[in-house]
Amino acid sequence: MENVNVRDPREHVNEEPRDDLKDLMFGFGGMLGFMTVAYIIMVIVKYMIGD
């Protein structure tokens, strides 16, 4: 067994490099899009109920 310090970030090999900014933008955009669609649906439902 090798003597490796698993808590040392300098020894960590990044197996799957990711673009964090792109992930953030996709996540933010996806959530914004979902909330916009949910808002539009709720407005339509409100007017269909006839408040």
TrEMBL record:
The chain crosses the membrane at residues 24-45. This is YqzM family protein. Keywords: Membrane, Transmembrane, Transmembrane helix. It comes from Paenibacillus herberti. The lineage of its organism: Bacteria, Bacillati, Bacillota, Bacilli, Bacillales.
